[in-house]
Amino acid sequence: MESVNLKFFLCVIGMVLVLEGLPYFAFPEKLKTLYLKMLETSDTSLRMAGFLAMVIGLLLVYFGTS
After folding, report:
1. Fewest CB atoms less than 10 Å from the CB: which of 17, 18, 43, 47?
2. Nearest Cα to 31, choosing from 47, 20, 16, 46?
3. CA–CA separation, 4 vs 2, rounded Å?
4. Of the candidates 66, 42, 62, the residue with the CA atom closest to the CA atom of residue 54
């Protein structure tokens, strides 16, 4: 049973890496522009966006496993 959970975990991590790497592969020039804009954005706004992304992610995991 543990082998199945480890395989599932590795698949999930692999998919996260694929999704995270896709924009860098497909749109590198646009990401550079985005990062320059992020430097101008306040820390508070970036923290709130990060917090919101974490909450949405946790909700998706919760509803996906229940």
Report:
1. 43
2. 20
3. 5
4. 62
The residues, any chain, with a CB within 8 Å of residue 46's CB and separated by 6 or more, are: 38
| Whole-angstrom distance, CA of residue 49 vs CA of residue 38 | 11
**Distance between CA atoms of residues 34 and 8, nearest Å:** 33
Q: Say if residue 8's pLDDT is above 90.
A: no
* Residue 42 DSSP class: -
Query: Any idea which residue has 């999704």 for tokens?
Result: 19
Mean pLDDT of 44-60: 95
* Amino acid code (one letter) for 46: L
**Residue-wise pLDDT tens digits, 16-44:** 999 999 999 999 999 999 999 999 999 99
CB 63 within 8 A of CB 56: no
